[in-house]
Amino acid sequence: LQRDAKGQYLFDLLCHHLNLLEKDYFGIRFVDPDKQRHWLEFTKSVVKQMRAQPPFTMCFRVKFYPTDPAALKEEITRYLVFLQIKRDLYHGRLLCKTSDAALLAAYILQAEIGDYDPGKHPEGYSSKFQFFPKHSEKLERKIAEIHKSELSGQTPATSELNFLRKAQTLETYGVDPHPCKDVSGNAAFLAFTPFGFVVLQGNKRVHFIKWNEVTKMKFEGKTFYLYVSQKEEKKIVLTYFAPTPEACKHLWKCGIENQAFYKLEKSSQVRTVSSSNLFFKGSRFRYSGRVAKEVMESSAKIKREPPEIHRAGLVPSRSCPSITHGPRLSSVPRTRRRAVHISIMEGLESLRDSAHSTPVRSASHGDAFAAPGRAESSERVAVIADENYSPADSVLPTPVAEHSLELLLLSRQANGAPCSIEEERESEAGTPEERGELRALCPGAAPAEQVNKFVLSVLRLLLVTVGLLFVLLLLLIVLTESDLDTAFFRDIRQTPEFEQFHYQYFCPLRRWFACKVRAVVNLLTDT
Question: How far apart are CA 199 and CA 175, in angstroms?
């Protein structure tokens, strides 16, 4: 990449490589050394957005989930969305009841290995695939039963389409969880979906707010505020606390982008949003892409031969690209093992086989909004699964790998020694010392960033002050020196206070200033 290359250049290059036209629902995600997630901003330089040293590790992801993935224009787009939702299922983001889970896994099995063949698929063959964070023998038997009896004859494309149709009916479809705490200190996951804002606690969806009910989002430090206006003209403010100010800002930016994408009719309606009521304070952000309605209209105009889809080799571990079997890398720190492993095995491999999408569907997710602190809220929440919502990948998603470790892993992969599933699980439970390992690489980064933010705030304040003084000076000159005789100016000039100011202060100051100017001109003339 050239140093001044924008994010849009990299994204367009990638979509061209994938032969992808419906690209507006995708994005490029990366994680900084402090393990904070970011979406690559297309209007800014790629290099300037990275706090790490090259080479940079990024991952291709669905950024805006289509409202109806089954209605996408091209098969390659549906395949890419299928890969993303399959990943969500494995990482615990797409949580569902056992019956739904078995059907989804059976669709994946049919798409990857085809029809059941007793000669190729011995007893317990479904246990060789990892579909979810946790498996049980009962669930594996149910998956195999559905695959044998109900899905015979379905092509990979048909199975993927049925998978998408089922997935988009689930309560956690399209959820990209942000771990937070509510005002009572209870753990919660906030997320933005195609239909609105959701809050997940335990195995329940405790809040669902449609996009047209969200009036404002802002953040201050670690605190995130969501302003809601309901039909009864009842206004509610939901408050949540993110782990860090950076995580809170990322949550706010994701909310601004999702609301603009799903709510607005056209991109010309997008406005710059400030995180504070004072325009010289806080962060300012503007969504720079097209909105959902424009994407659908553009997709409807696509007329080309369907591009060929190169699906990955169908091996037992392929149901989740991050699951492989092999010796452990005991010489590599656990927190870094997973970083390199996902970026190579999942980020890059899925990237090669992926594609994109477009949305539309009648919003049937009209759940009632449960106000915080209400006694009846427990009766109105939606149970989403048999287990608690606890996405394993919400804290350390799409990590950044160090170059030396990446080369080490690549060489081991080439020699047939991939990472094991235990290593990925271990990395989730890394010690605080390990989690702080990357922060130690750049000890002065956080204080320097805080100083920079303070300096920027002071500069904004000074600029605003100077601007206000300049406007007041122009108004004063117009009042005292111009011949404008409007009613507004006439009323001001006739007040006793203005007459006193004009004759006692302004006129002497003007004479003094004129005298000084003449003296300077005479001095310059004499020299």
Answer: 10
For the chain, the structural domain boundaries read 7-168, 176-300, 470-509
Could you tell me the pTM of the whole model?
0.65
Give the Cβ contact number of residue 524 at 10 Å.
Answer: 8
Helices then strands, counting H and E runs in the chain, come out as: 19, 13
**Which of 324, 328, 327, 337 has its CA nearest to residue 401?**
337
> What gap in Å lies between CA 511 and CA 24, rounded to an integer?
64
The answer to whether 78 touches 165, Cβ cutoff 8 Å, is no
7-168: CATH topology is Acyl-CoA Binding Protein (1.20.80)
- By three-state DSSP, how is residue 182 classified? coil
C-alpha 346/C-alpha 90 separation (Å) is 12
List, for residues 104-129, the tens digit of each pLDDT value: 999 999 999 999 998 888 888 888 88
**The amino acid at 428:** E
DSSP per position, 305-368: PPPP--PPP--GGGGSTT-------TTS-HHHHHHHHIIIIIIIHHHHT-------------PP
**1: DSSP letter:** -
With contact defined as beta carbons under 8 Å apart, do 64 and 261 qualify? yes
Residue 174 φ/ψ region, left for φ over 0, alpha for ψ in the -120 to 50 degree band, beta for the rest:
left
CA distance 93 to 393: 8
Between CA 258 and CA 62 the distance in angstroms is 12
Q: Are 205 and 381 in contact (CB under 8 A)?
A: yes
SS3 category, 60: strand
Among candidate residues 474, 504, 480, 510, the one with its CA nearest the CA of residue 493: 480
Residue 79: how many other CB atoms lie within 10 Å: 24
pLDDT in tens, 24-80: 999 999 999 888 999 999 999 999 998 888 888 999 999 999 999 988 999 999 999
Tokens of 475: 């108004």
Q: Give which of 397, 399, 366, 426 is closest to 93, Cα–Cα.
A: 397
- 7-168 and 176-300 have identical folds: no
CATH topology of domain 176-300: PH-domain like (2.30.29)
Helices (H), 150-237: 156-167
